[in-house]
């Protein structure tokens, strides 16, 4: 094995050649316009973030969570410009995987492809779990009750049971304990654990609705891109209509006192919601995976990404203000915040709460469809490059879809979603996406640091960052030191370096500091473009907020991927076998 071959790159000429050949052989239907792509983007971005994770973010940061939405949107905006820069040059599917193949070489492309498979799968799992919660609640609203042990994961049920047992061990009676617990998840977990059927001592507990919705969406994707496009368009129309009515009705029930204090937990509280808020924005990049089904990908993909981000940011800010205005932020750690604010604790309009639950069931299915669509295209492109078995790139003769990839992607989501919970998977999805954004943004600096190609249909503005970027870093450092000295927030304390239990959680932040210093040096030497530099910096900083445990889990996934690459991908790579 040659170490140099690990970083063998595709060139734009390779890409153009492959694209012309694959266009004839794969015959994917080119039917997507800018409007269709924007609808896909909105379907992905306005999903679980609105109907689920916005509540968790508001609970942590209070009404000031809107600043985190703005900050995250800015970070994603810079990254979207980098994606658009690549999309205008590379007209094939694969998103960050394909872009990294050009910028960094095969091994890094494999790493990011493996990362994207996890990102989309985990995102789908989060969406299916959120869908299940709304679906179960909707059925209950109409008097249909699914047994608790078939509507939640095993570990949450066991945790709920253990929580109740701790109180019982204190000598308290069961009715008293149950009446004193306010967390519905604990009560549901206890009910699921005690009522579940058993095989020996093993309780049979899993989230059955998640499997049902994944199977349904997989079938829709399998039938073809035309059906997926139509389904997604209908979902977006319903979703936007519901959001409009939530704002139009909710604005009359806003209590300004709920916005005081605006940032109850300070800057640290706002940043604690990074995982939940960034998860809300995951999806704008999924548009790039459909490049081979676009009418004019080099023109339409950049426009659709930027339109999606702009529209969705405005929606999130307005919804954040309405949600925290109708109900106090301390009550918003719930799985269905939009329905919750129209319940007894908020506006108390039960029928409207039911409408929101119904729309969430429909809309979240649309989100799942878009994420699944993106995941199948990653499987397909990696297979075409020889890094995965060839069966994953087989196109169905009738439906014109990568049918084996579609089925495998469905299983990758359906089976884990039976047993996982939201808290376990949201952070992993966010770190996977942020990692992809960092590499795509850095890739722009690798292939065209001064944006000299004037033939592209989209050109990101070149701003010489030689002096600007180091100056911005110095200014930011001064501001941070000033505010930390006055106790407004704390990044590092002396105690962090004396106790490993505290220090290990600061390792991501220290690595980030090393990274930005290296970027400043590289920028000064090479006069790099400012926009991708800012994209790399902001995305890297957001990663530091996810915690060391998430980093470790992500590293384990990448190590598993490395084993797969060295035992299969390296030996079967088309680029390694073919001389262009």
Features:
two-stranded antiparallel ribbon, 580 residues, mainly alpha, 69% helix
Characterization of the model:
It is a single chain. The protein has 580 residues and is mainly alpha-helical. It is built from 25 helices and 2 strands. The protein has helices at residues 12-26, 34-45, 48-61, 65-87, 96-103, 106-141, 154-168, 174-180, 184-195, 208-222, 225-250, 266-272, 274-281, 297-326, 337-340, 350-384, 403-417, 422-447, 468-485, 494-498, 500-503, 507-526, 530-544, 548-572, 574-577, and strands at 198-199, 202-203. The protein has a two-stranded antiparallel sheet. Strand 1 and strand 2 form a beta hairpin. Helix 6 packs across helix 10 (208-222) and helix 18 (422-447) runs antiparallel to helix 23. The longest helix has 36 residues, at 106-141. The two termini are 20 Å apart. The model has no long low-confidence stretch (mean pLDDT 79).
H-E order: HHHHHHHHHEEHHHHHHHHHHHHHHHH
Number-wise, the strands total 2
The overall pLDDT, averaged over residues, is 79
Helix share, percent: 55-70%
Structural class: mainly alpha
Strand order, largest beta sheet? 1-2
Percentage of residues in strands:
under 5%
Low-confidence stretches: none
Total count of helical runs of at least 4 residues: 25
Gap between N and C termini, in Å? 20 Å
Q: Using the alpha-carbon principal axes, give the shape.
A: globular
């Amino acid at each position: 094995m040659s170490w140099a071959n690990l970083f063998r790159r595709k060139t734009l000429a390779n890409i153009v050649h492959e694209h012309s050949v694959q266009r004839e052989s794969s015959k994917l239907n080119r039917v997507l316009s800018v409007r269709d792509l924007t609808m896909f983007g909105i379907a992905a971005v306005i999903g679980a973030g609105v109907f689920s994770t916005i509540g968790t973010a508001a609970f942590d940061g209070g009404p000031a969570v809107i600043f985190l939405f703005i900050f995250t949107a800015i970070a994603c905006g810079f990254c979207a410009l980098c994606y658009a820069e690549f999309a205008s040059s590379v007209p094939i599917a694969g998103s960050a995987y394909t872009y990294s193949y050009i910028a960094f070489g095969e091994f890094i492309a494999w790493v990011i492809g493996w990362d994207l498979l996890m990102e989309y799968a985990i995102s789908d799992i989060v969406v299916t779990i959120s869908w299940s919660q709304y679906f179960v609640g909707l059925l209950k609203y109409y008097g249909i009750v699914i047994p608790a042990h078939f509507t939640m994961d095993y570990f949450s049920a066991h945790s709920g049971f253990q929580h109740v047992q701790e109180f019982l061990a204190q000598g308290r009676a069961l009715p008293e304990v149950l009446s004193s617990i306010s967390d519905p998840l604990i009560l549901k977990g206890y009910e699921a654990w005690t009522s579940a059927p058993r095989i020996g001592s093993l309780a049979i507990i899993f989230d059955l609705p998640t499997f049902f919705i994944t199977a349904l969406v997989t079938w829709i994707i399998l039938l073809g891109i035309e059906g997926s496009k139509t389904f997604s368009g209908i979902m977006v129309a319903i979703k936007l209509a519901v959001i409009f009515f939530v704002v139009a009705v909710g604005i009359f029930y806003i209590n300004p006192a709920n916005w005081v204090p605006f940032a109850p937990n300070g800057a640290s509280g706002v940043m604690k919601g990074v995982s939940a808020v960034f998860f809300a924005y995951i999806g704008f990049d999924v548009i790039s995976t459909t490049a081979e089904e676009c009418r004019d990908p080099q023109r339409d993909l950049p426009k659709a990404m930027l339109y999606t981000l702009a529209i969705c940011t405005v929606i999130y800010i307005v919804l954040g203000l309405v949600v925290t205005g109708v109900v106090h932020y301390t009550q918003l750690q719930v799985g269905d915040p939009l329905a919750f604010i129209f319940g007894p604790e908020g506006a108390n309009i039960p029928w409207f709460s039911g409408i929101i639950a119904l729309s969430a069931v429909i809309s979240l299915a649309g989100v799942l469809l878009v994420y699944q669509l993106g995941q199948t295209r990653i499987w397909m492109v990696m297979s075409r490059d020889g890094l995965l078995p060839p069966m994953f790139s087989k196109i169905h003769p009738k439906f014109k879809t990568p049918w084996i990839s579609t089925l495998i992607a469905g299983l990758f989501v359906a089976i884990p979603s039976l047993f996982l919970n939201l808290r376990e998977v949201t952070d992993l999805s966010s770190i996977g996406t942020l990692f992809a954004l960092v590499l795509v943004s850095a890739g722009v600096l690798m292939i065209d640091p001064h944006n000299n190609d004037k033939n592209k249909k989209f050109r990101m503005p070149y701003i010489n960052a030689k002096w600007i970027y180091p100056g911005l870093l110095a200014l930011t450092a001064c501001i941070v030191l000033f505010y930390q000295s006055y106790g407004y927030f704390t990044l590092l304390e002396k105690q962090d370096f004396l106790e490993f239990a505290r220090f290990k959680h600061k390792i991501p932040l220290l690595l980030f500091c090393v990274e930005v210093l290296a970027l400043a040096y590289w920028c000064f030497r090479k006069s790099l473009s400012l926009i991708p530099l800012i994209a790399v910096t902001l995305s890297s900083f957001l990663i530091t907020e996810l915690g060391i445990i998430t980093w470790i889990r992500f590293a384990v996934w990448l190590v598993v991927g490395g084993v797969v690459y060295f035992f299969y991908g390296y030996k079967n790579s088309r680029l390694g076998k073919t001389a262009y």
